[in-house]
Amino acid sequence: MSAAAFILPVFRVLDMALDLYWWVIIIMAVMSWLLAFDVINMRNDFVRSVWNGVNALTEPALRPIRRFLPPIGGMDISPIVLLLLLSFIQMELNALARALLASTM
To answer: What's the CA gap between 35 and 33, in Å, rounded?
Structure first.
């Protein structure tokens, strides 16, 4: 059994996890806009529980970015930076998986 047979499924799982995390960040950004414009509010238990869950998942990754990149014009662009970083990581993982697959054939 080659190393590629073990590593390629791991890469696929990592890629799926990064895709899922991408959507969590999108949900957090949309919810923050909806909360800011008072379309939804935190008095609703469901909204509060979703916000707390999404915030707990994204805040550890966004906090270091916010430390180096303060809000620009009152707008927090740290989710955009994190999405760009995730895209870069996914591209590198896919390139590595393709190279590994090409080397085994």
So the answer is: 5
Distance CA 58, CA 24 (A): 7
The answer to whether the CB of 67 falls within 8 A of the CB of 76 is: no
75, β-bridge pairs: 72
Query: pLDDT digit string (tens) for 47-76?
Result: 999 999 999 999 999 999 999 998 888 888
Write the CB contacts of 5 (distance below 8 Å, at least 6 apart in sequence): none
| Segment 15-54, tens digit of pLDDT | 999 999 999 999 999 999 999 999 999 999 999 999 999 9
Which of these, 45, 78, 44, 47, lies nearest to 60 by C-alpha position?
A: 78
**pLDDT score at 65:** 95
**Sign for the pseudo-dihedral over CA of 97, 102, 104, 105:** positive
d(C-alpha 94, C-alpha 8), whole Å: 10
Distance of alpha carbon 47 from alpha carbon 17, whole angstroms: 24
